[in-house]
From TrEMBL:
Entry-linked InterPro entries: AGPR (IPR050085), AGPR_dimerisation_dom (IPR058924), AGPR_type-1 (IPR000706), LysY (IPR037535), NAD(P)-bd_dom_sf (IPR036291), Semialdehyde_DH_NAD-bd (IPR000534)
Encoding gene per record: lysY
Entry-linked Gene3D superfamilies: Dihydrodipicolinate Reductase, domain 2 (3.30.360.10), NAD(P)-binding Rossmann-like Domain (3.40.50.720)
Associated pathway: Amino-acid biosynthesis; L-arginine biosynthesis; Amino-acid biosynthesis; L-lysine biosynthesis via AAA pathway; L-lysine from L-alpha-aminoadipate (Thermus route): step 3/5
SMART domains xref list: Semialdhyde_dh
Active-site residues per Swiss-Prot or TrEMBL entry: C150
Listed name of the protein: Putative [LysW]-L-2-aminoadipate/[LysW]-L-glutamate phosphate reductase
Reported function: Involved in both the arginine and lysine biosynthetic pathways.
Lineage: Archaea, Methanobacteriati, Thermoplasmatota, Thermoplasmata, Thermoplasmatales
Length: 350
């Protein structure tokens, strides 16, 4: 059986990768690292895993970890992956990097969006952007995958049909709402319950770093430079991302046109659902309805008054926005059925 390991396994994303891998059936989880919880059972950090594994955390550094497994998930903070990745690439171990360190193809964008000069620009082309619906064949043949950001994934899913069909305008306005787990489990002043609870905090009204990867991917599909004006808010949820995008179109667009490009883009995709109903509580996507699953839910409304299509997309940030997409990529890289380990039906009520 293929052996896999997770570095940064005490974090939220690392915990979700472990949960998905433990019920996958085709891989053996042989290693989970945490520098602060060495020697502890992984269920000390992730109590939901009690009874499913007796694995204990090690404090192997990422390079040593990579030497012990066939495929490694690197689930550490931005900026710490690039310090160790060159050695792992040299070693050749299959790697799925959850950070933003290898998502951008143009090294000149790193100082602008991430605040550092990229120390290994020659490695950027060796990483495939890990969105299975858009880079399926490249991921299948990849050894190194850069898993997308959570807000980026949700936005790309909703705008991809418009980029591909040429319906997208030069600038698209995107309003993102995100749950608290999106910023990881390290405590800080902003994450204190009394500050975070009941708040709608515009934590990045402009300049969100996911803008760069969204523009990179959409521009590729549009065949020209497209921009997104992204504003991100922290809202009162633990899990979930909702992106509401205003696509201003050059021509009048009918419902049937939007359905057509949505179906053309996502026909046969196992993890994309269209949500648009005439009545009921959940007429359009709500992140609550994706919790626990690898689905992205997409819906739309046409606003004839201003000539825009409002596209709403929702995901569970920890799954379709992180761990689930990475396991989907792992399935492609290792030749498993794409949905293996990812068929969980979302919770309701959540
Ligand atoms: N949360 C999300 O929804 C989400 C979505 C998409 C992508 N991501 C990305 O996924 C990565 C992990 O996110 P997260 O939310 O799981 O963060 P997290 O909860 O803060 O976990 C990060 C883990 O990395 C370990 N760590 C920290 N610094 C390290 C270092 N220098 N070397 C090795 N290990 C280190 C920490 O464990 P120890 O200190 O015990 O070693 C910690 O458990 C980040 O790059 C994040 O941006 C997160």
């Amino acid at each position: 059986m293929v052996s896999v390991g997770v570095v940064g396994a005490s974090g939220y994303v690392g915990g979700e990768i472990l949960r998905l891998l433990l019920q996958h059936g085709g891989v053996d989880v042989t290693l989970a690292t945490s520098r602060t919880m060495k020697g502890e059972y992984v269920f000390k950090a992730h109590p939901n895993l009690k009874g499913f594994t007796e694995l204990k955390f090690t404090d192997d550094d990422p390079v040593t970890a990579a030497s012990k497994v066939d495929l490694l998930f690197l689930s550490v903070p931005h900026g710490s992956s690039v310090k160790v990745t060159p050695e792992i690439v040299e070693m050749g171990t299959r790697l799925i990097d959850m950070t933003g360190d290898f998502r951008l193809k143009d090294p000149s964008l790193y100082p602008i969006w991430y605040g550092f000069e990229h120390p290994a620009p020659d490695l950027l082309p060796r990483f495939v952007y890990g969105l299975p619906e858009t880079h399926r064949e490249e991921i299948r043949n990849a050894r190194f995958v850069a898993n997308p950001g959570c807000i980026a994934s949700s936005t790309i899913y909703s705008l991809l049909p418009f980029a591909r069909s040429g319906m997208i305008n030069d600038v698209t306005v995107v309003d993102a709402k995100t749950g608290s787990s999106a910023s990881g489990n390290a405590a800080n002043r902003a994450s204190v319950y009394s500050e975070r609870y009941n708040s709608i905090r515009p934590y990045r009204a402009a300049g969100h770093r996911h803008t760069a990867e969204i523009e990179q991917e959409l521009s590729q599909h549009a065949g020209r430079k497209v921009k997104v004006a992204l504003s991100a808010h922290a809202v009162n949820m633990v899990r979930g991302i909702q992106t509401t995008s205003s696509v201003f179109t050059d021509r009048e667009v009918a419902e049937v046109d939007v359905w057509k490009i949505m179906r053309q883009t996502y026909r046969g995709e196992p993890f994309v659902r269209f949500i648009r109903d005439r009545d009921g509580v959940y007429r359009l996507p709500d992140p609550k309805i994706t919790v626990g699953s690898n689905f992205v839910d997409i819906g739309f409304e046409i606003d004839r008054h201003t000539g825009r299509v409002v596209v709403i997309s929702t995901i569970d940030n920890l799954i379709k926005g992180a761990a689930g997409n990475s396991v989907h990529s792992m399935n492609l890289m290792l030749g498993f059925p794409e949905t293996q380990g990812l068929s969980t039906i979302p919770l309701h009520p959540a």
